[in-house]
Amino acid sequence: MSKIVVGMSGGVDSAVTAHILKKQGHDVIGIFMRNWDSITNNDILGNPNANALICPEEEDWNDVIKLGKQIGIPVERVDFVKEYWDDVFEDLIEQYKLGRTPNPDILCNKYVKFGAFHKWVKENIPDVDYIATGHYADVEDGILKKPHDSWKDQTYFLAQVSRNNLKESLFPLAKLPKSEVRKIALENNLVVANKKDSTGICFIGERDFTKFLQNYIPAKPGNVIDITNNKVIGKHIGCMYYTIGQRKGLNLGGMPEPYYVAGHDLKKRIIYAAPASDKSYLISDEAIITDVNWLDENNKPTNIEVKFRYKSDSIDAKIKWINGKTLKVIYPQGFEAVTPGQQAVFYFGNVCLGGGTINEVFFNGSKKEHI
Q1: Do residues 84 and 117 touch, judged by C-beta distance below 8 A?
Q2: Could you tell me the pTM of the whole model?
Q3: CATH of domain 218-277
Q4: Is residue 108 flagged as an active site residue?
């Protein structure tokens, strides 16, 4: 029997994780992380719950209390609002101000769920053997591996977690498909058995993202320019609110076809747009990746697979190391909308090798200046 702390969100995955471990006979403790305070953080614009009598986070905590009684484990709420703001959210805002597109879920896992949370557990709960979460991933001696359910595979979001923290972690859902997790919750009448999966920003939830960003970044209107002929075709409210490849929200009326965001110039407040029928402005074949977190120093293959977005397919690529934290990834077949600020995550077969931040993007040897 092991002493295991489970990070409980009030969702079905972490609930079933706690249930499975308790049923196996382990000494289980549930911890609910409170990471966002809408009032303190001025989360007003774009917040559908701004005037709700009870916020979704409180509802989740109430569900965790009920689950603790159902499963038969003690539960506690711990506040990481400051850590989330300092280590995740401030960086997100600064990256958007620079015209980059960060991934807060990856930073949240690195700095909060597997950083501050692990640190708190070690300092406050004695003799803990493992810390478990409801992520769909697998781990062996700090090596991150894909789970059984490929559709729910969350290794992309865990690629920045340190190997030491992964060694301390358990992922009891690694061998289960999501359908089986739901079935376990229903068969055991867990109060969250039919609860929808959470969506939106990690620990913040669903938001009208453009309005949400306006809480923290003032609007700076400018022109939308057709990159194919350099003509003004519309107006925008701020370059930093749009990401490469985005179609919705450009509000270009009277155009013969839809347009997408092909690039931007922050100093001139220009968004460059291109017709959807011409994807050439999105294509790149090389990228420089910085802040690389490599999970196995003894395994550095040259030929790998890379994933540039969570729900995109992995593609074949080659890597060339520039230094210990920076590499170049080469994908001659080309790929669309590889965007600075987002994450590149590397795979070799079933193993997630790690990941890093997309810093610069190239095509045919030339840097794509407006991306």
Answers
A1: no
A2: 0.93
A3: 2.30.30.280
A4: yes
